[in-house]
Specification:
By secondary structure, the chain is of the alpha+beta class. Helices cover 28% and strands 27% of the residues. The chain starts with 5 loop residues before the first strand and ends with a helix.
Length: 295
């Protein structure tokens, strides 16, 4: 692992300085089928071109949802779950979904639509893409690197700082993934339509163990991907690690139900906070210890 968090910058590993890599960094280009040629992450006029970061022990976290669009593998894998072999289908991007009152429940990342030979829609499935949000400061190491990529590829970024960028899986699942499943997923479930969720392996491992069912019984397919380095091309490629088939309600219940800790640990935490609110006179030397209080 390097001494900094950056893995891929504008589609290329931080150490790759090929002509193609330099052209993408110079033009701030996105090679992964963004809606425009340029990267638009964070700011269109000053994009944060970090596709993936390191998260310890050589693990890689996908930090941008557009990164999952490489070669449109996610659409192919989702279609294999939605439709029978040989079905003709197309993909539509960012399709708004309304509730019965006409209020927006959000936009579906990718809708795969099957059709007959006359062009009439026969079925559809919804594909959501969930990258991980980053806590801490990723922009400063990115901008420092971009000032001189060749000479700063082995830059030393202080890991001890509380601002060191790290994947925020808890926020990513509870604030973003779960609301999507609740609002959009509930509508799709009521229509009897299948869903797929594309995430990377590190993200999936932070979720509770989901009860699996047979593919033909499933409401949701969890498409779990890795980034695998192709040494000959000196670039990472998206690869499907596994597909996990689940039912809608049990999976949602498992993700949204926390595993309770020990109440004694919480009482101890309350006691510590209580002592902090007291001055020295209110906390005499003979005050009971936490162990005594918890007996």
């Amino acid at each position: 692992m390097p001494n900094h968090p950056l893995n891929e910058v504008f589609g290329f590993p931080y150490w790759n300085h090929s002509k193609a890599a330099q052209r993408h960094r110079r033009g701030r280009l996105c090679p992964y089928n963004n809606r425009v040629p340029n990267c638009t992450k964070d700011k269109a006029n000053n994009p944060l071109g970090v596709c993936s970061i390191f998260e310890g022990d050589d693990a890689i976290a996908v930090a941008c949802p557009i990164r999952f669009r490489q070669d449109w593998l996610i659409a192919q894998d989702a279609a294999a779950f939605f439709f029978s072999p040989g079905t003709e289908w197309i993909s539509l991007m960012e399709i708004r979904l309304n509730d019965r009152h006409g209020n927006s429940a959000g936009s579906i990342d990718v809708v795969l639509v099957s059709h007959d030979k006359h062009g009439y829609v026969t079925d559809f499935g919804a594909l959501e893409v969930q990258a991980v949000y980053i806590s801490g400061d990723i922009r400063h190491p990115f901008e420092h690197y971009m000032e001189d990529p060749i000479n700063r590829q082995e830059m030393d970024w202080p890991r001890q700082s509380r601002h060191y960028p790290r994947p925020d899986y808890l926020s990513s699942s509870r604030r973003w993934l779960v609301p999507q499943l609740i609002y959009k997923g509930s509508i799709l479930k009521s229509w009897g339509k299948k869903q797929a969720v594309a995430i990377h392996t590190g993200f999936y491992r932070t979720l509770p163990k989901l009860a699996e069912v047979e593919p033909e019984e499933a409401d949701i397919a969890w498409l779990v991907y890795d980034l695998v380095l192709n040494k000959k091309q000196d670039r990472y490629h998206l690869r499907l690690n596994r597909t996990v088939h689940t039912l809608f309600e049990p999976a949602l219940d498992q993700i949204t139900t926390p595993e309770p800790g020990q109440v004694d640990d919480f009482i101890g935490h309350l006691q510590e906070e209580f002592y902090r609110e007291l001055d020295d006179e209110s906390n005499p030397p003979d005050a009971p210890t936490l162990d005594e209080l918890l007996r």
